Each structure stands twice: as C-alpha cells, then as structure tokens.
C-alpha cells in the first residue's frame, strides 16, 4: 500500500474527469427541447458548490484549531492563511456572477419552467457555511414564515442543527478574545487607562476650541456640542452595564470582554504579537463583507433576469436576497469597533514590561 | 499654427505633470502633524474626480448625439461604445475601493479631524453624472431635510439645475424609444399580437397541467393558480390605463410607448437591426447597476472605517450611502421589462416584410 | 414523459450534488498522509475542467453556425454573444489563479510527490479548445521533441486529430471573411480606392513637412524618412504577391482576401451592418489575448510554486508555459490589421449606394 | 496657525479641483481637429502618474524605515502594510488597461500624430519606481543602444542616478536578511542541519523506490535518477562557492547569507516571529509579478492599438514592453527559493530554545 505512492497517476483519472464531465444533465434536453444555455446554468451552479465545499473544508479546519484547549501560536498563522483563502474564493464567486450575466432573460425563459420548483434556497452547503460562521436560526430571514430548514430533508436538517449547536466560529473567536492575556498585566488595567485617555483627549479638544480666535462663534458652539456628544458616546459604549443591556435587547452580540480585547488589538495592532490577531479580525470582517457583496450582486442579477416576478423557488428571489444581504451579516460588532478608536497621539502608553512582551526586535543589535 | 503639429511634444509637458503632481496638499503636514496616509486619501479622491470628468465627457457627447433631429445610425454605434466605456470606468472605480481599504481606521483618525467638514457629498461632478443620467431632484435623498444642492455655491447650483432641466439621458432615450418605427408596420400591430400570444401560452399551459397524470392534485392546484396569477400580471402591466396610473402614482417612470418599444427590442434582440438598440438598453442597465454597486461598496468601506459614527460631512455616511444605493437607481423600468417576456417558442411570428427589414444576410448567397 | 416537466425538481438532485461532491479523492489521504491543501488543488482543477467543458460547448455551437451554407444574420448576433461569454469565462479563469496562489510552496510539497507524473499537460479538453480555435499541430511546442498528443490514449488522440482536420474556427472565420460582399460593389473596388487614399495621405503629409517653417531641418529629415518608410510599409503589406510570400514562409496565416475584408470592417466599423462583424473580430482577439494572459499568469504561479525545477509532469512547467503563452496565439494576423489603418479623415468615401446599404436609420424622419 | 485646524475645509478646495480638472489639454483640440478620445488618453495617463506618486510615497517611507540602524519590530508591520498597498495599487493599474482598450485603433489614429514623439518611455516616476525597488542601469533594456536616461533632462538624470546609488529596496532587504539572528543559535547551525536533512530524505526515498514491488523496473530507474539529480541540485545550490560563482557571472544577485536566511524564513514560516518576515518576502515577489503582468498586458494593448508598427516614441512599443516584462524583474532570486524547499516531514527539528524564541502562546494556559 505504501508503494502506491509510486504507481502512475494520470491527470484524467486523478480528477475523476469521466464522472465529473458527465454530471451536467440538462432537463431541457431530456424533455426534448434542448436549450443551449442550460449547460451554463448547471455548470456555474456546480462550480459554486465545489467552492462551497472548499470553504467548508477551510472553516472546519479553522474551527477545529480554535477548539483545542490552548490555542497554539503556530496554528494561528495557519488559521489566518486559511481564512484569507476563504476571502479569495468568495471574491472569485463574486466575479463569477458575470458569467451568469452573459445569459439574457429570454434565454433563461427557454428552460426556466423545467426547473420548477428547484431553487438556490436549497443549497445545503451554503446554509452550512453561514451556520459555521455563526449565523443563528433566529438571525435568519424566515421562508414564507417558516424555518429556512423546511426545504431540507430530515438528515440534512439534523446536520444543520448540529452545526448550530456545536459552537460556531463566532463563538470560538469570542472565547479566544476573552482569554487574551493582555487586558490586565502586572497592575496595568487597559480599560481604566483607556477611559482616562478618552477623557483627557476630550478636555484638551474642548479647550482648544474655546481658545481659538479663528472659529466663528456659531461654529464654535456646533463643534463643542459634537465633541461633547462624542464623549457621551464613548462613556456609553465602554460601560459594561450598557453593553450587557444592548446584548439583552439584541442590539449587539459580542460579549463585553471580547469587545474590549478586540478594541485593544485594533489600537496596538503594530505590536508584533498582535499582528496575527489583528489580521485575523480583519479577515473575519472581510469574509462578512464579501458574502454580503455576493448576496447583493446575486440579487441584482436575479432582478435583471426575472424582474420582480417570483424565482423558480416560488418567492421573489430579488427581494429575499437583497434583504438577507445585510441581515445575514455575522461580525457586525467587529465593524463597530472602529467607532471606539481614538488617535494614536492620545493613546495610553503601555507599561514598559507589556511593551517588551508585545514586541521583539530583529536586527544587528540583538 | 497648423505647423505646431510638428513641434516636439514631451510626455511630461503634455500631461502637465509639474502641475498635476503638486496638487496633493496634505493638511496634516501643513498643520505640523504629517500623517502618512493622507496622501493616499487625496490621490484616490483626485483619481475619482478625473474619472468623473471622463464619464461626463462621454455622457455629454452621447446626449448630444441623441439630441440631433434624426438619430443617425452611425451615431448609435458610437453611442454604444461610449456607454460601454462608462461601464468599464465605473467597474474600475469599484475596484479602486480596495486601495482605500488598505488604510486602517486608526490611520484615518490621524488626519480625519483636519478635514472637517469636507465630505464626498460635496462632489459636484458626481451630482452632475447622476443628473445627466436622469436622477431628478425629487428622486434624491434629502440632506438633513434640505436639498442636496445646499452644499454647493450659487454658480454650481445653477449648473445642476440647468442639467436637470435640459433633458437627461433618461428622457432622450425615452423619446428615441417612442419614435422606434417597428411597433406598427403595414398592418402588423405588435401589441395586439403579443397580448394574443400571451393568452395562447397561458391556455396551453393550463390545459397541460390539467391533463397531466403525474402531478399530484395539490400541486396541480398550486401550479394552476400560479399560471393564472401570471396571466393577470401580464394583462395588468400591458394595459395603457394601468401603466399611466402607475406613472401618476410614482410606481414607474418610463412612458407606455417607450416601454412597449423596449419590450419589442428585448424579444427580437437577435434581429440585426435591433442588435445595437438591445445592447444600448443593456448598457444603460449596466451603468445603473454598477453605480449602485459602487455606492454600496463605498458604504461598506465607510462602515469599516468609522463604524456607525457620523462622517466628516456631519451625517452617518454609511446609512446615507446604503440608502441611496437603491434609491438613486434610474433605469429601474428597463430592468422590469424582464418580467414581461415570454419564451421564444410562444412569440408571435413577425410578418415576412418586417422580418426582412430587421435582418440582412452576409454570405455567399446574397 | 412530456409531463415530467411538471414533476418536482430539487436543486440537490438537479445538480447531481451527491456525485459531484464525492469526486475529490485526495491521494495524500488515501496514502495515510492527509495534506490539507490537496483538496484545493483538486477542486480548482475540477473547476477549470468544468469551465473548459462550457467553453467547448460554446465554441462547438459557434463553429456549427459558421458551417451552415448561408451564414444567417440572426446567427451572427448569437455567435457574438457566445464568444463574449467565452471571454468572460477565461477572464474568470485568470482570476482563479489567485486561489492557487494562497497555497505556499511548502504546502504543495506535502502532496506533490503523490501526483507524479500527472500534469496539466494531460488536459484533453484544453487541447481541444486550442485546436477548435485553430491551433495546428505544427504551431505547437513539442513535448520533449515529440507530439503533444503523446500523453493521450488512442481514442483521445483520434478525437484531437478529428478536430484538427474538421475545420477550425480560424478557417471558418477566414472563409466567412472571404465571402463578405463589400469588397466590390457596383464598380467600387475598395482595395484600389484604399491604395490611392494612402498615397494621397503620404503626399500631403510630406508637403506639409517640407513647407513648415517651424520644424528644425534635422527633425524635418527624420520625419520625412519616417513618412516615406510608412509609405513603403503600406505598399508592401497591401500587395497580394508579398502577402502570399509571407504565408508561404509562415510569417502570417490569414489569406489575402480575408485580410482585406478584415481591414474594411475595421475601417468602417461604425456602419450598422459592420457592427456585428467588427465586434466579432474584436472578440476573437480578446479570446486570444485572454488565453495568452492565462498561460502567462499560470507560468508565473508555477515559478513561484516550484521555482525552476521540473513540474509534476517531468518538464520545467514554467518555461513551457511561458513559451507557449505567445507561441500558441492564433489570431495574430487580426491584431496586425491595426498597422494597416489610416485616419478617418483620409479614408476613401464610400459610394452612395454602398453607404446606404451599410447603414439604416432609426428616428422620426424616416 | 494651530487653529487653522478648525477653519472650514471644502471638498472642492481640499482636492484642488479647479486646477486638477483644467490640466487636460487636448492637442487635437488646440490644433483645430478635436478628437473625442484624446481626453481619455490624457486622463488615463494622468491617473497612472498619480498612482506612481503614491507608490513612490510608500516605497520611500519603507526604505526609510529599513535604513534606521536597528530595524524596529513595530516598523516591520507598517513596512508590510505599505508594501501590500503598493500591490493593491498595481493590481488596479492592471485593471485600468481595460479603459484604454475601449479605444479602437482608428480612434487613436485621430490624434496619434499630434503626440509625436512623446512616449511612455518618458515617465520619470516609473523609472524612479523601478530604481527604488532595485533595478540597476545594467539590468535595463537599452534605448536604441543608449542609456534609458537619454530621454530625461539633466536634473531628472541626476535624480535617477542618486536613487541608483542611494541603496535600493533590494539592497536594504538583503542587508536585513543577512542580519537575521536565527541562522546560528546557541550551537545550532541551520545550514549544516539542513544539508543533513536533505541527505537523509534522499537516502530514504531511494531505499523506498528500490524496495518497492509495484514499480516497474524501467520506471524505477527513471525515478532513482530523478531523486539523484535532485540531490546534486541541492548540493550545488546550497554551496557557498557555487553561489558566489553564480553571482560573479550574473546568474543570481542575492548574497549567499541573505539567500540562506530567506530559505529559513520560508521553511519555518508558521513560527510567529517569522510571520511578518515571510509575508514581507511574499509581498516583494507579488510586487515583482504584478509589475511584470502590468508591462505584459500593456504590451498586448499596444500590439492591438498599433500592431507591430513603431510607437509614438519612435520604437516598437510592443517589443520593448514584452521584452522588459521579464527582464526587468528584480526579486527573481526570492522566487527561486521554492526550488530549495523540502517537505515539512523531512525538516530538521529546531532546538527547544530556538523554537520557544520563535513562537509564543495565546490562550488560557499562559
């Protein structure tokens, strides 16, 4: 068996091309009214499903690495590379919509009826991707008032439920953020220091506005109000109680501690030890945005293809897709971290020890 | 003077590079707190404005050609090529957002305050593009309850109003569609023939469903209802009275006659004489979709950059952009034509004479 | 059977997902040394093969349409749309290289040995695409001094030979160009008129240079020589004898008559009747360029993956691909038409009748 | 002055739009024969020059950071982000070629003569980019047998020479690699360990081939020979003497020590401390490849535009560009590192201390 390594492999067999290239079964041809463009329709959906499989392959391995007790530093680099690959694939999926757009509505009509009521809603793998990332049943659009699972059979439904209950990437990343060891370090309390820094920044800014001889009085008032509002905003969102109220009322999802850890990572992202964590959070936002763009472009394409009429799945495809584009976003809270940042010049200085811990030096000196 | 043709031209002077490359005036540097990334911010906006100028150059020439009494066939091909160029440029503008995304929120904070209250809302050229395409003042989002023109000076406001009143591309295309000579041709009335074809198609389809031994009764009912609904839909939207009611109530904008002409062009698009018109309508939809995608991606980028907080222009940039993405669409009615199409096999056959008129033959025979 | 139309279709079955998603058989896993990235390697090649199938589907239909006795005008529009689709697909294939680039050389080493000696050289469908477009056996790079067919089995070799002998798209387009009815029209001989126009243009230009008071004498000389050279160039390449010598010596391939017809189409491309022919020639050049870019980018990727070492197929993949990039170009002669053009202002005016024939008018007037 | 911060900034003034939008001076219009497409020609070149300025802004800052005595770890992250930005910009520049491709050769002819002899060869900033990256005068294509600097004036020539002599990014990265502290660490000598690992891998592989019952004798011979060749290859390229001979004869450029350091970084790239260095080397290769692709696509576009005839600069633009595409590559040696890698399973194990130094742990445990 070990020697099989040396047997001869041929490209054709390795890729199972005989099987692969015989799976395009045009219904229009089977029904005696061959429509040239149905082949494109099948192939582009099959290509999507192959990419879905690849994405799941990456996401499953990433979740697996997050699940090990101590997250290993070597793994983190691999986690990052695999998430970046997922982004590259979704980017390609967005480009692929252009192939579908070479089909005109009239060409689609030639075989559209033969597909009824099959629909993209029925893609099991796409639902698995969303759930693995962290989309919960309650976050989803319902399907004519019923669960999105209604289009799947029992075994598929069970698989989807298992994913939803098994700990999504969202929850794994949240847990990892909460464990970050940087928030408290030998007497340095990041959150207290940050709140103080915000206060100082605001006070200084207000003083500068009041002292200015060049700002017209009316403008001064407006600017002072803006700075004040900004101050209350920070106070508000940096408070644990307020954050927990927001979670309870569904306004955000990421836990308080994880949020503060993500804030720290964003603020000190050029420290070498935070480089991978920062890139990782960025990549999660990327994936979220790219999936949103994909749903959105998809909605546009359906609109052009069939107008406002209902899709083959029996519902208005365009409306559904357009609505899910934003609603199915998962890492919104990470995007919102941006509103908590202050300029570098106002940042609290890290204590010596922590700074050393977070950085290291290359170069002749060492 | 004619001989200047032969004087020596140098790339550097031709492109006015001395001037061009001195127009990046970083405010952060001027104020003594040089922020590395402000240069990118300036350059990418200047590049956008250069592309806007190019788009206006194309749109103005296209409108000019539509305005001539008899639209010349040679012009139509040029019109098409120029609109296609506009699409290619907007596609590039969408790609360009990626350069902005290489800037992190923290880097932006380094100079963001210096820009207050400048804002992309103040791009005169972008407003001109929208108005030239056909966006009316009443279609636009208001700006804190006021006209979008409030951020422009008197002369700029006057220019925008002149464009709005001067006949937009939407109106010019509408007029051109209304003049299409194919709707009535020696006794052939397209609309009557089409309504009849829809009727026949529906009747045939219903009979087939009723006769089927394979469709379960419950499914039969559902399918019959769908076909019936589809029939009322066609009756509804092909009626002139109904169409005029929709226009009056703001549900659509394109005139009845222009809509029917666009329908004909879509249905018989492979007839050579309709090739350019079909491509032209397609290109208008493309431009509309691409601008929508650009606004949408732009909104995503702003969200990542500053979260839900207000933009430098003093309003929530993300919300504004996300809302205008769909609302500022101009050629929606062309997209909706898709819902009026029926399969080729059910199409009314064109009378011999018209068919000949619309087609011509290459090849040995002729 | 006819009623099967109404049976229930499910997305999952329609796309044969059970089969499709079970065709990724990682050899590293089978041999007990599972390498995570082999899945990507398999899936991206399978996706390529699916797109190859789609491209062949389009090219075969296009060739079929060209083969009918009288090329029908309606078909030409469809031919164009299908070639444009091929371009969109190859564009996507180029983008797809980015997915492969997310794999590092070290990751590839984990399973590379298991694939020996399978290789992309063995893709039957890609060879079919090249041959269908018009690449002849003699135009190809040899494979270690032997025919490229050596890696295929008997049945595959027979299919490739059949395509090579069956009339490629190059030959079909050449024949169609030769049949274009515009070269001679009621006493108007395009070629004679064109040669005369070139002469007049050159004479006028030389006179202007000589008469100029502003060009320095040395510069005058240089410019006169350039115009003169340009004149001989035109004389040279517009001569039938010279053209036939070039074909005989393998310097070009497209027949003299076809070349002149392509020249005419390029010169008068805004005439409506030439719109589709012009777009068609453009699309063939596009496809050629895109395939070249794909090979080239592919070569770059292989270089990064394995350096200058030999590929899994046992030859230096990078060198092979880099060399074929230019060598396997098929429609070079169409690209070269550009060098035969003169400015619109110097073009021979078409006789009234021909002008009318080539154009038609939309609009109120007619 | 400090208060200027609060003065009012308007988008229009901030971007210097009045000046910017008046720099498009069409020569065709000035000479009384306005050609519509010249505006595109000017604008797309001006956009390129703006991006060139941005690229130089990034490269200069990166070189500056490399020049400081001890390269600071925080800087390295910033270096990486700025190089990634350069890649994103060149990617966009490649896309931009599509805007130029919307111009047909005939449209270009309308104003091409007016530009003589201006040419893209005369772009000062592009030469500065190449030299800053590390292209030496001797690596460049000559210009009709003369230095590429001949098209520049004295002051420009001086600036180019200063860059060439001032220490390019290539040299700065080489120096930094040579200083990497990992090659020798408390008694561990990486190179010796690596050569031993290669030997062991080869011996094991040969034994496995000889012992196999499944490989046909002829195939065995071939495989043994391949493994043997591979062994000599490694011996060869890992030898300092051989490497120095190659440098002397111009076959490679990167110093021996820098090459070995780059090899180590590639082999252990998932160690956290090597994450940024690995990404940095990758990004340099990216930039090199993207510039190559840009030159190549540019050459294709020129070919389509003017065929094989000479460009406005008086030389065959296509040939020049096609040749420089590969020849002007700067970081070839980094690409070649791939051929020196062996699979992870055969890698020498790092001594405990070094492993700890290179990695660190996130998570609960610590």
TrEMBL record, chains A, B, C, D:
UniProt xrefs under HAMAP family: T23O
Coiled-coil ranges from the UniProt annotation: none
Keyword RNA-binding among UniProt keywords: no
Binding site for substrate: 112, 312
Family as reported in the entry's similarity comment: Belongs to the tryptophan 2,3-dioxygenase family.
PANTHER family (UniProt xref): TRYPTOPHAN 2,3-DIOXYGENASE (PTHR10138:SF0)
Cofactor: heme
Catalytic activity: L-tryptophan + O2 = N-formyl-L-kynurenine
The protein's enzyme class: oxidoreductase
Gene Ontology BP annotations: L-tryptophan catabolic process to acetyl-CoA; L-tryptophan catabolic process to kynurenine
UniProt-listed SUPFAM superfamilies: Indolic compounds 2,3-dioxygenase-like (SSF140959)
One Pfam family matching this protein: Trp_dioxygenase
Keyword entries, A-Z: Dioxygenase, Heme, Iron, Metal-binding, Oxidoreductase, Tryptophan catabolism
Protein name listed in UniProt: Tryptophan 2,3-dioxygenase
Source species taxonomy: Bacteria, Pseudomonadati, Bacteroidota, Saprospiria, Saprospirales
Residues at which heme binds: 298
Stored Gene3D superfamilies: 1.10.287.3810, 1.20.58.480
The encoding gene: kynA
Pathway membership: Amino-acid degradation; L-tryptophan degradation via kynurenine pathway; L-kynurenine from L-tryptophan: step 1/2
GO MF entry, a single one: metal ion binding
Record's subunit section: Homotetramer.
Annotated organism of origin: Neolewinella agarilytica
E.C. no: 1.13.11.11
Function: Heme-dependent dioxygenase that catalyzes the oxidative cleavage of the L-tryptophan (L-Trp) pyrrole ring and converts L-tryptophan to N-formyl-L-kynurenine. Catalyzes the oxidative cleavage of the indole moiety.
Record text on cofactor binding: Binds 1 heme group per subunit.
